[in-house]
């Protein structure tokens, strides 16, 4: 009886932990709030993230004002052959979120010229996770 209980607990952990990490990794990305914005990069920020990685944020100048675009890990963006600089014209598809500082956009795709940087799939799962549902 006791070994059966341990077996069930192991199965429960095996199933529930990946789901918990998946929710944590995309906790702010909501496909129902997706929108596309066009603008000019006013500033590129490198932000220290959890677990020691650096993230890239783009402060985008749009017709509606400035918008903080959360792109993703700087190392992932560089590995895809992308870089951003002040004055770049971009189009961003992403999920609108509220932050302490106001509103932001978590990017799923960023078009720059004729190239497209894919950061997340349609469900918001980060590409840098290999498409697996795990934490960022």
Summarize the structure in words.
The chain has a domain at 31-124: Beta Barrel (OB fold (Dihydrolipoamide Acetyltransferase, E2P)). The protein is 22% helix and 43% strand. It has helices spanning 2-25, 74-79; strands at 34-48, 54-62, 65-73, 89-99, 102-112, 115-118. The protein has a 5-stranded mixed β-barrel with strand order 1-2-3-5-4.
CATH topology of the domain at 31-124: OB fold (Dihydrolipoamide Acetyltransferase, E2P)
Average pLDDT score: 82
Q: Which class of the domain at 31-124 in CATH terms?
A: Mainly Beta
Q: Which overall shape is indicated by the principal axes computed on the Cα atoms? A: globular
What brief labels describe this structure?
22% helix; OB fold (Dihydrolipoamide Acetyltransferase, E2P); alpha+beta; globular; 136 residues
């Amino acid at each position: 009886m006791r070994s059966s209980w341990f077996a069930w607990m192991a199965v429960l952990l095996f199933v529930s932990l990946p789901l918990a990490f998946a929710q944590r990794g995309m906790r702010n990305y909501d496909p129902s709030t997706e929108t596309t914005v066009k603008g000019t990069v006013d500033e590129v920020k490198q932000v220290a993230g959890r677990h020691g990685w650096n993230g890239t944020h783009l402060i985008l100048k749009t017709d509606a004002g400035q918008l903080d675009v959360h792109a993703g890990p700087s190392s992932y963006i560089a590995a895809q052959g992308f870089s951003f600089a002040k004055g770049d014209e971009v189009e961003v598809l992403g999920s609108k979120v509220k932050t302490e500082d106001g509103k932001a956009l978590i990017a799923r795709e960023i078009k720059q010229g004729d190239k497209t940087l894919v950061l997340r799939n349609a469900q918001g799962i980060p590409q840098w996770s290999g498409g697996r549902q795990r934490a960022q």
